[in-house]
Amino acid sequence: MQRQRSLLALILVLVIASITVLARIPIRLGLDLQGGSQLTLQVKPTEGKEITREDLEAVQKVVENRINGLGVSEAIVQTVGQDQVLVQLPGVSDPEQAERVLGGTAQLDFREQKPGSETQLQIEQQLRRELKAKQDELRKTKDEAEIAKNQEALQRSNQAIAALFERTNPPLTGKNLTGATARPFQTSDNWSVNISFDAEGGGRFAQLTKNIAGTGRTLGIFLDEELLSAATVEVKYAQEGISGGGAEITGNFSLEEANELVVQLRGGALPYPVEIIENRTVGATLGRDSIQSSIYASIGGLILVLIFIGVYYRLPGGIAGIALVIYSLLCLSAFVLLGVTLTLPGIAGFILSIGMAVDANVLIFERTREELRAGKSLYRSVESGFYRAFSSILDGNVTTLIACGFMFWLGSGLVKGFALTLAIGVLVSMFTAITCSRTLLMTAISFPELRKPQWFCPNLQASRKSEPEVGS
Fold it and tell me: Which of 73, 106, 100 minimizes the C-alpha distance to 88?
């Protein structure tokens, strides 16, 4: 009995926690529900070069940075196939603006800091750090007006920093960069970024570093007019500059920051043109209609299921209905906590997992009825029903999870969303069917007024009389 009370307390805590999560954190909605823009970018290879997976991921990173500049929250950027990037921008009603921002290749270049701007650069960099920290906080509040206002201030700060540097002549750009790798620097917590240039870029880099060596001025690395890194050059390179076609960028980088800079450098160095081959808009009205229809379908299906199992299975059916409500709360709160973006296929996966939860209860209740008809006591019949049905429930759910795993691994976009929501639903349904239903049912039969076999199996006496006796 103590174990049942502990499980009841656990279930109550989970229900309260789920309601709290759903009340405080909104569910993330996908493009098909919220409306917005969807663009497909085609990365075109140049003559003599092929697009690798690393190149495509670098393009993806650059696109993500540009989307952050748009101030779009919960945007989805993912690679498709070998040479495409899919961009979904929920809530964006101006696809032309997104196309202008995402339409070109990233511009990477190396610049020399102007004399006498050392103090001003420190002030501007501190201001930019504060604005970026504020932007991260504003994205959590989803205050679009404040996000746009702060983004404008951030752009002005980037322009002010860029004005403190001047381009070399001839320019040293990402076209001259041949590679970038992250390496440990002095300690395992301090990382640097090693870059390498082609022959032409190596000569320009040597001249650039010669000009600023020992002056206190910095070498600015810009990506899309935004300063990525400002590095000083030691005085020992004042005679010839840094030669050899390579350099090491240090700046107390963590491993994550160094890897991010490597990806940005590679993305900026991509020589491949990017073309938008599809730009379509999903209206907010369609999104609202989809949500409304999905809610009606979910509630209607759940009510019909509850009525059926309540009428057919009597008391166990009513308890299963309570378990299904608990299942729905746990499942939706899991979507919120795991950051699942809910789409129409995702809702379909959730509704399908409700059917899986009902199927588990049906197996348990039918086993219980078989045990009652065999003449066992009510308590032993219920225990045996859960025990004997477990293997069937486990087999069915494991095979479904395997299918979900393959869909998530091999699929993309909406297919992944369907697989993820279905997998979460299956896992939660196993918990509610085995733990919640069993605990609630065992608690119910502990009350004498509910301990009537007819409430578990109608016409039980008639079914027992109709069975032939042994030896007849």
Answer: 73
pLDDT at position 73 over 60: no
In sequence order, the β-bridge partners of residue 41 are 85, 276
Q: What is the CATH number of the domain that holds 272?
A: 3.30.70.3400
Do 244 and 323 lie in a common domain?
no
The number of distinct structural domains making up the chain is: 2
Residue 468 pLDDT exceeds 50: no
* Residue pair 55/365 in contact by the 8 Å Cβ criterion: no
* The model scores a pTM over 0.85: no
Q: Give a yes or no: residue 254 inside a domain.
A: yes
Same domain, 311 and 377: yes
pLDDT at 254 exceeding the cut of 50: yes
**Whether residue 343 sits in one domain with residue 236:** no
Max Cα–Cα distance, the chain, nearest Å: 112
Do both 328 and 401 map to the same domain?
Answer: yes
Q: What is the domain extent for residue 400?
A: 2-28+283-464
User: pLDDT tens digits for 25-56?
Assistant: 887 777 667 777 788 888 877 666 777 787 78
Strand order in the sheet with 84-90: 76-80, 84-90, 36-43, 274-282
CATH number of the domain bearing residue 429: 1.20.1640.10
Give the C-alpha separation, 128 to 154, whole Å. 6
270 and 369 inside one domain: no
> DSSP assignment of 246-304, as one string?
EEEEEEEE-HHHHHHHHHHHHHHH----EEEEEEEEE-HHHHHHHHHHHHHHHHHHHHH
What is the structure's pLDDT at 24? 87
180 vs 264: CA distance, rounded Å: 10
Measuring CA to CA, which residue among 468, 14, 31 is closest to residue 286? 31
Question: 137 lies in a domain?
Answer: no
- Same domain (yes/no): 8, 88: no
Q: For residue 450, is it within any domain? A: yes
Rounded to a whole number of angstroms, the CA Rg of the chain reads 31
Strand (E) or helix (H) holding 90: strand 84-90
Surface-to-core class of residue 209, CB atoms within 10 Å of its CB (0-12 exposed, 13-18 middle, 19+ buried): buried
- Grade residue 123 by pLDDT with cuts at 50, 70 and 90: very high
Per-residue confidence (pLDDT) for residue 120, from 0 to 100: 93
